[in-house]
Amino acid sequence: MGILTVGIDLANNVCAVHGVNEAGKPELVRPAVPRVKLHELIVPLPPGDGDGGVLGAHHWARQFETGSVDDNRFRPAREVTGYG
Q1: Higher confidence at residue 3 or residue 58?
Q2: So what's the pLDDT on residue 11?
Q3: Torsion angles phi and psi, residue 52, rounded to 5
Q4: What is the dihedral of CA 73, 78, 83, 84, to 10 degrees?
Q5: What are the C-alpha distances in Å from 2 to residues 6, 8, 28, 81?
Q6: Tell me: the pLDDT tens digits for 14-60?
Q7: Which of 12, 19, 40, 80 lies at a C-alpha separation of 20 to 30 Å from 3?
Q8: For the chain, what percentages of helix, strand and coil (3-state, to nearest 5) are there?
Q9: How far is Cα 18 from Cα 53, in angstroms, rounded to an integer?
Q10: Measured distance between the N- and C-terminal CA atoms of the chain, rounded to whole angstroms
């Protein structure tokens, strides 16, 4: 199974990344990813939907699109359910 959903907790210097597969089981857990390393961690992952309620989320979506992720879609928060 591959990673289906990735959650990113954006912070000033260090971000937390949590990815789960189709069964809801964690496959990618990185509690402390430096912002300068976030792009290289996310770009190799398959494209998917995103939920961005803050300006920083949209900034990162544009950054990921400059890599191999060409299908980033952000949905309004009301359309996204939590996992975990």
Answers
A1: 3
A2: 80
A3: -130, 110
A4: 140
A5: 11, 17, 10, 19
A6: 988 888 888 889 998 999 999 889 888 887 877 665 555 555 677 77
A7: 12
A8: 25, 35, 40
A9: 17
A10: 17
- What are the two backbone dihedrals, phi and then psi, of residue 80, each rounded to the nearest 5 degrees? -115, 135
The β-bridge relationship of strands 49-51 and 73-75 is parallel
Give the angle 9-12-18 at the CA atoms, nearest 5°: 20
Within 8 A by CB and 6+ apart from 83, the residues are: 5, 7, 20, 24
Lowest mean pLDDT among 1-5, 9-13, 19-23, 57-61: 57-61
Instruction: State pTM to two decimals.
Output: 0.68
